Amino acid sequence: MATRDSHLPGRTPESVTPDEIDRALDEHPEGAAEPAIPPATGEAARRRGPFTKGDRVQLTDPKGRKHTVVLEPGKQFHTHRGAVAHDELLGQPEGIVVSSTGKTPYLALRPLLADFVLAMPRGAAVVYPKDAAMIVGYADIFPGARVLEAGVGSGALACSLLRAVGERGLLVSYERRDDFAAVAQRNIETFFGGPHPAHRLYVGDLAESTETDMDRVVLDMLAPWEVLPTAAAALVAGGVLCAYVATATQLSRTCEALREHGAFAEPHAFETMLRDWHLDGLAVRPEHRMVGHTGFLVTARRLADGVTAPPRRRRPAKGAHGETDTPSADAVGPEASGQPATDAVDTPTAAPRPAGAEPLDTLAASAPAVIQAAADSDGGGTPATAE
């Protein structure tokens, strides 16, 4: 129930004037009910409440193995540990445990997006959840955003982008191969329960598109540097370009192309390593296996038209840009050439060998004979030799 204090949050009673109290009570009469929370719709409605026909359910056994089933009345899910009847799940809430005919318990939950991506049919390699999460975060994909995507693959990244932009946003995806586009379309519709209202999927080359007024551009393709003119024309000023590449050579070429193009600010490149941890009482340690390198991410902001970014001040490493000649110490000084100053370091000299002393190599060559002579003088024993 509303109160006087709730209409003026953050204000102490002493600081509130009578006129402010009267206006607040006129707008929110005492005893008026708070606005009702609207009912869930779309994906939220399908992911809440008890299990119903057509729901995807993930069954996890005691060893952590996961199985996904689509619920249908009268059907059964069969494993080598017995069968689980779908009717035991229909109408039940998430988080229940059901047992197979072989008495094996299974935890029943709706699969998360990460679970769906790793188990869905694939045409092309998928963007792993750890990279998709970083793309959504570092490319700043917000609700209602207009996003242009190149290289839809199997639709894994598109699912994350659509979830981020929501039904009021827009995701325009381009895919060169029609077979990949078909797989991606089926996966997206399977996850969202039908065509997503904010998605437009085209079979073709992004370089030939005429999209404009886009807030973000996400590139998951072999040569993102080839479509930078198209991406720059599509982005609004201040928009974000995000490229996902697999190799260091692609990373280098993409960053250099962004710098040379002139319409983008300094690019930022990084990768993400994901390592699980083993937790069992006092046995707390990293898991032996991890999801290491999957790809690099490069982000860059779109500049306003006609604006040149200030040059980045950095001290490049020698040979970073292909220089073959390095300045001499006389020309740039000992510090710049990387050589120590001659008057700042005392160079030790070898001590002179005493007259008549044998060189080290001569002593090493005569060592076995010396050892044998010492052994003979001790009684003729056999000396130990070092391997």
Automatic annotation (TrEMBL):
Biased composition, class Low complexity, residue ranges: 32-43, 340-355, 364-375
Top-rank taxon, per record: Bacteria
Task: Tell me a GO cellular component.
Answer: tRNA (m1A) methyltransferase complex
Under the heading CDD domains, the entry gives: AdoMet_MTases
The enzyme's main class, written as a single word, is transferase
Q: What InterPro entries does the entry give?
A: SAM-dependent_MTases_sf, TRM61_C, tRNA_MeTrfase_Gcd14
A Gene Ontology annotation in the biological process aspect, one of them, is: tRNA methylation
Q: What region holds the tRNA (adenine(58)-N(1))-methyltransferase catalytic subunit TRM61 C-terminal domain?
A: 118-278
Ordered alphabetically, the record's keywords are:
Methyltransferase, S-adenosyl-L-methionine, Transferase, tRNA processing
* Basic and acidic residues biased stretches: 20-31
PANTHER family in alphabetical order: TRNA (ADENINE(58)-N(1))-METHYLTRANSFERASE (PTHR12133), TRNA (ADENINE(58)-N(1))-METHYLTRANSFERASE, MITOCHONDRIAL (PTHR12133:SF1)
Q: What is this protein called?
A: tRNA (adenine(58)-N(1))-methyltransferase TrmI
